[in-house]
Amino acid sequence: MSTCDDKINVLSETLLYTRKNISFQTICDGYTELYPVIIDGRNETDETECQQWPCDNIYTHCDGFYNCWNGADELGCNSSPLLNCPLHNHICVSPITNQFMCLPITKANDGKIDCLGATDEQRLCRVKCSHPNLLDSTNFYCIYQNSGKCIDSKNLCNKENDCDNGDDEQFCRKESTAASGSLDWLLHNTFPTNVENFLRESSTSRPKPSTVRFTLNEKSHLIKNSRTYPTKTRSTFIPILIMPPQRQYRCFRGLDLNVWLNKKIGISSGTCLCPPSYYGDQCQYQNQRVSVTSAFRTLSDSWETPFVIIISLIDNSDERIIHSHEQFTYLFIRDCELKFNNYFIYSTRPKNQTKKYAIHIDIYEQISLSYRASFLFPITRPFLPVHHRTFIIDIPRSDNVQTCSSRYCVHGKCIKYSNNQQANSFCRCEPGWSGRLCTISHNCTCSSDSLCIGVSANKRSICVCRIHKFGTRCFITNSICQTNDSSTCNNHGQCISSDAYRTSQRPFTCICSKGFSGDQCEIEDNKIILSFNKDIKLSQSLFIHFIEVRNKDTPLRITTHQTIPFIQHDSLIIKWSRPFHIVFIELSKQNYYLTSVEKIYNQSSTITKLIQPSDRCYHISELFNETIFKFHLLRRIKYYHLPCQNSSFNLSCFYDDIHLCLCYDHLETRLTNCFQFNHSMTFDCSGENECINAGQCFQETVRCHKRSMCVCPLCFYGRYCQFTTSGFGLSLDSILGYHIRPHTTITHQSNIVKVSIALTVIFILAGFINGILAMITFNNKKICEVGCGLYLLGSSITTLLITILFGLKFWILILAQMAVISNELFLKIQCISLEFLLRICLNMDQWLNACVACERAITIIKGTRFVKRKSRQAAKLIIVTLLIFNITTLIYDPIYRQLLEEKNNDNDDEKRIWCIVDYSPSLQVFNSIMHIFQFFAPFMINLISAIILITKKSQQQSNVHTKRNFREILREQFRQHKHLLIAPVLLVILAIPRLIITFTSKCMQSSNESWLFLIGYFITFIPPMLTFVIFILPSKFYKKEFKTTITQYRTNVTKRLQRLV
């Protein structure tokens, strides 16, 4: 290696990288690129142990170099051969006839020289290392030299014998007999023969590229796109004025103007036009000023929202003077990489040292003029004549405006600053008012459709213009986006005119609707339709890796994340606007499937692919034995062609820790093609994590991403990981939500939705009938003489409430997800209240049933010592205590509930509004504990009470009938008191399925499991629906009272009807 590198004084950074890093593309290509590496005591390079590496492959075939010593990789590559030779023959010059001849490939590199210059024996002269700046021309071998000699091609045909036997001159054109200087003489001696040209070219090796890029195209090593995608840049035209040399330096930082005072008599005067940062008659003095460099970021809900940003230099006086301000528009998809440089001068010269100054930033949405946020950055070093501040502003959500009441704003509203909500706030004044407390009136001169937000130090109104309007008072219309022809945005794209205060290459920007891209939304996105073999186990989501092969750079990898909807768990549609050549999907961590390989990118194409098990990419540990697997990468990579050549594997791809490899057909064999791939690449959405429940935010690119996704932890799913699919926290929204199809009638909904509707109707009818009959029975003075009756009366009331609340919750969910209901205020009210009230009622019903069982057990234990009055008093106290306890332990739930709008990445018209709850980690633990307690405590009370009822009663009878068998007594007591046992035993039995589902199925991970969890959810509502069945029908006393009450109602109704008649 030093032989090559020593000839070059300085190695480039790229070459140093090549020397130290293993490249699949240059392994075993006949040229040494890598520095030697000591492995197991031996010096290894990229050209050692190459027995298993085919020298003729996608990177060496027809590349102009003999990478195979016998030249097999260059056979048939010359489109205009000098001699028509049979297949598998090289052209060379005969050392006997000095004419072209055909040499079979079997005679090349056989150790015997058959061609002049030994062009068939490349090992004799070629330098075995590569260097992009090294030209090796010493490749002509003197055949009859005793010691073997390679001479420079420059010495061929120089009329001197550099080889002992004149090999270098024997093929050269002989001296012409024509007269010197004649035309024949000139033609004979000026133009070399084909043989001379051939030997000179064969003896001069052009520099071998040390860096070879990944490619899919064999011959040209180029990947051509059907469309060129220019890089979007924003440039500013700055005119350059050339002034006479004698006047260039009179106005130091300004423009020298000649002002005609009287043109007729030729009187003029020179003056200097100074920029705002300088002043003086020659612009020789600097203004005190503040320089601001700012960049902005938005969350995904505002990537396509144009903003108006006003940056002002203010002081802390009562007038809150705006000394200077700058206004510009910001659109993330257009300006995501742009930095804004502005400077602000003080209204007085010099500035008032007794005042404190700050940079105040206001942000408005340009389309609606809705206020979004304000930021405050104090000037911390006021003594500096020029103060520089740099900001990165994160524009908050639209619902994040924090108001306050700590300040008395007369004609305005108190607003907290977004970057310091704890300490700082200000009065956002109404139009026509200004000052620290909005007490100073001024005449607003803005247009009627704009927003007047203040007044500057020179008494001019500061106006925020609507979209397509501009000017200091917003009276000028920008009509570029008002044309209806195809010169602006196609396919329903939204046209946004460029900022009038900044120059731009384009007068407008298009916000394309989903499914289209391009400067004018003229390009339809590629569509990839995936379906999966039934043997492939799918997870809740998958990664899609798009690889773009680039001519002079490493492959560009862009990754997106897609949730697999439960309603279409066996198929998926992906729309993609960027160029790509290879597509992989990753179903679970490092579980890859090859989806598509296209040598040429086809714009606006549709790819339909059924993912088969054979498309899976194997890890090398599955392909190689343990010995090869544990080899150093430099040794192991030289075996990578073997898996693809092994037909028993039927491979399409495989991977190791740093590569993804494809199998491809080359001539009559299958070979491997690998590129580097980071298997653990992650993004954090630039610190703007929108995901909840510990979801990881993921974006397709580091900069200017158009999509952000949430990679959810186990047991969570949804666009923002907003749903849990585990344990007691499982809600109807998370089980059924994604099964409901928006904008689709009930008759065309999925089967699980139809079954849920049918079950809900049955439950509602059963609940109302059960609740009404139970209320009729237990609203009875005789029954309510003891605590048990009060508990059952309370249970009847909660049954009716549960039925009403469950019905409302179910139908609101159905109608909201079908996009029938979209009123956010209504949805927010029901979100906060329904789930909270439903949980309270369910918990109360469980506790009241447990109290019934408990009191019955106490009655058996106390026997004749049982006092009805005390029981009734205790029941009233317990019911109130339970109600307070349940409300108190759930009061946090409505506080943390909120609406979340989820938009479909591939469809602008499809959006879902979810009711979610976002607990802190500590509160999540508390919530789980309370769920478990609220379930197990009543469950255990019912279970223990049932056992006490049977055993205690049996013991009492056993004490009386000492001669009888205890088992017989137990059986008899069960028959006699079955009405007391049915309720607690049945409640325990109904709770067991839910218990089993909760603890045996950790998460709902597929559409099939939705049915199981839906059953578990509906089981929760069965006990409240069975109050009449489990408490009244088995009891003779309650049944008698029920019949008596029904008779009374019937009599009363009959009497009233008779009166009406």
TrEMBL record:
The keyword rRNA-binding does not apply. GO terms for biological process: establishment or maintenance of epithelial cell apical/basal polarity; heterophilic cell-cell adhesion via plasma membrane cell adhesion molecules. GO terms for cellular component: plasma membrane; protein-containing complex. It is found in: Membrane. Disulfide bonds join C157-C172, C404-C414, C429-C438, C512-C521. It comes from Adineta steineri. Keywords: Disulfide bond, EGF-like domain, Membrane, Repeat, Signal, Transmembrane, Transmembrane helix. It comes from the Eukaryota. Residues 400-439, 477-522 form the EGF-like domain. This is Uncharacterized protein. Its main location: membrane. Coiled coil: none annotated. The chain crosses the membrane at residues 755-778, 790-813, 874-892, 929-950, 980-999, 1011-1033. The keyword Protein biosynthesis does not apply. Residues 769-1031 form the G-protein coupled receptors family 1 profile domain. SMART domains: EGF (SM00181), LDLa (SM00192). One of its GO terms (molecular function) is G protein-coupled receptor activity.
